[in-house]
Write a structure and sequence with these properties.
The chain has 2 domains: 48 residues, no CATH class; 60 residues. It is 20% helix and 30% strand. The chain is built from 2 helices and 7 strands. The strands form 2 sheets. It has a 4-stranded antiparallel beta sheet, with no helix packed on it. The chain has a 3-stranded antiparallel beta sheet with strand order 5-6-7. β6 and β7 form a beta hairpin. The chain is elongated and about 55 Å long. The chain starts with 5 loop residues before the first strand and ends with a helix. The model has no long low-confidence stretch (mean pLDDT 85).
């Protein structure tokens, strides 16, 4: 038996998915029932199977940057290598510094989003 990580709508990872994606809603009797993301109602406890294989679309990443007022800075790390730094616009608090390279910006944003989803950011 394994432990399922569930979320309660409107919180959790549902917004990363298409409205037509099937998730499992936990019924009052404890059983799981398939449900489309678009059918979730306030207070539904739901489970999303293996999100590691579901990439966030670019528009979700950009919306997150805009909604959380995150700035992108291109800088250098302590070794003099290029880096991408995400900071909060309000207080200039750095969220993450990520080595520069192909896909680094989306990786840095995804990293911050994952931390915030877990309540660690």
């Amino acid at each position: 038996m394994s432990i399922l990580r569930t979320s309660t709508y409107p919180r959790g990872p549902h917004w990363q998915l298409e409205q037509s994606t099937i998730v499992q809603v936990i019924q009052p009797n404890g059983r799981l029932k398939d449900c489309y993301v678009g059918e979730l109602s306030h207070g539904d406890e739901y489970y999303v199977p293996d999100l590691r294989n579901v990439p966030r679309p670019a528009e979700v990443l950009l919306a997150w940057l805009e909604n959380h007022r995150i700035e992108i800075d291109y800088t250098f790390d302590m070794d003099g290598d290029k880096a991408i730094e995400l900071t909060r616009e309000d207080d200039r608090a750095p969220l993450v510094s990520y080595p520069f390279g192909k896909g680094a910006l989306s990786e840095a944003i995804n990293f911050c989003m994952d931390l915030m989803e877990r309540g660690q950011g």
